[in-house]
Design a protein that fits this description.
The structure is a single chain. This protein is an alpha+beta fold. The chain has 15 helices and five strands. The protein has helices at residues 3-11, 17-23, 25-40, 44-47, 148-184, 186-201, 204-213, 221-235, 237-251, 255-262, 267-275, 280-303, 315-319, 325-330, 338-358, and strands at 68-71, 74-88, 93-105, 107-117, 121-129. A hairpin with a 3-residue loop joins β4 and β5. α5 runs parallel beside α9 and α12 runs antiparallel to α15 (338-358).
């Protein structure tokens, strides 16, 4: 084959899935961001400067700490200034002022608050530690003097994984019921459709709230976690089931499906071995777009006091401390946990849109 023909073939070669995803820079960087975030969850104890319940009476409602690099024009490295606090007897509010004469360098790969890594190993090592004789509160401190940044990191482990487990349950139910409805038809299809319509007709948030409130108050935090996951997963599958049903209806008359049936393949094998893998890319995109609703659902329930409760730390639990408008007006850094919620939900939506386009070889 001539060189000219090789160039022509290379020019019109169909781009791969990764090539199509790379062309959508926003989706690609959202994938990198979410991958890095989920990869950090097993090592939250090392990343957080403090433990989730570490308190300091000297840091109650302390504003975010400024991390500096230069002092008097000279490069010193990352450091903070010592902080002095006084009590305003008129407003009964603590006033924090940095003492620029005292430079406190941050410590790296150092010993700090003790923790059990993965519940197996007792350790004290942290990537970043507060300086000796000072504090490091990147997002500020709450009403008990706890570091909000450290609690946001611990809360990420709960809020992000509850979305994955809830979507996994929703995915299984949606694929199973939607696939059976589309492939078998008849009374099975009619029954699944009526169930979908019933669940879709119910208001979602009030139903979440009612079921969450029904969970026993004496349950342990781990049972509350699985209860919330079960509620979110059982109520979120109808949308995916409807999409799977429509896709299976369009595929069940295809030649390869008829050939598999004539060769004696069982209905289960035809559905799950031949049909579902044919649109797995669309399923992945749908699941990716469903995860943000799970995260927002847990955040909303915990914010309203009907989901996870202290001592469990999640983003919704952290935001529940900002319900008082006067507290938000005086201490706006209590809303810091809202930032990761917005970033993660936005990243999942951007990634889902990119995946939906990337799995379509005819998209541009």
């Amino acid at each position: 084959m001539s060189t000219v023909e090789d160039i022509k073939l290379a020019k019109f070669e169909t781009p791969t899935f990764l090539d199509r995803l790379w062309r959508r820079k926003g989706s690609f960087f959202a994938l990198v961001f979410l991958t890095a975030l989920y990869a950090s969850l097993p090592f939250v104890e090392l990343i957080a400067p403090y433990g989730s319940e570490t308190r300091s009476n000297d840091a109650i409602f302390m504003p975010p700490t400024d991390v500096n690099w230069f002092h008097d024009g000279a490069f010193i490295g990352p450091f903070v200034y010592a902080t002095t606090s006084t009590l305003d007897l008129t407003t009964f509010q603590r006033i924090f002022k940095p003492d620029t004469s005292k430079v406190l360098k941050l410590r790296f790969l150092c010993e700090g608050d003790a923790y059990d890594l993965w519940g197996l190993f007792a350790a004290r090592w942290h990537i970043v530690c507060p300086p000796d004789g000072g504090g490091l509160y990147i997002f500020g401190a709450d009403r008990l003097g706890r570091d909000i940044f450290s609690r946001v990191m611990y809360g990420a482990r709960i809020s992000l994984t509850i979305g994955l487990f809830g979507v996994a349950l929703s995915f299984v139910l949606g694929c199973f019921l939607g696939g059976l409805a589309g492939y078998l038809g008849g009374w099975v299809d009619a029954s699944v459709l009526r169930l979908i319509e019933l669940l879709r007709a119910l208001p979602e948030l009030p139903l979440w709230m009612a079921l969450s409130a029904a969970l026993p108050a004496n349950w342990s935090p781990i049972w509350i976690y699985f209860g919330i996951t079960l509620i979110l997963g059982l109520l979120d599958w109808p949308g995916l089931a409807r999409a799977v049903r429509a896709k299976v209806l369009s595929l069940r008359e295809e030649d390869y499906v008829v050939a598999a049936e004539l060769l004696g393949a069982s209905r289960t094998r035809v559905l799950f071995r031949h049909m579902l893998p044919n649109f797995s890319g669309h399923l992945i995109a749908s699941v990716t777009l469903a995860i943000p609703s799970m995260i927002l659902g847990e955040t909303a329930l915990s914010f309203l006091g009907l989901g996870l409760r202290p001592p469990v730390v999640s983003w919704g639990v952290l935001l529940s401390e900002a319900q008082n408008i006067s507290a938000v007006e005086l201490y706006p850094w209590l809303l810091a946990p809202l930032a990761p919620v917005v970033l993660v939900v936005l990243a999942f939506n951007v990634l889902g849109d990119g995946l939906r386009d990337a799995v379509d070889p005819y998209s541009h």
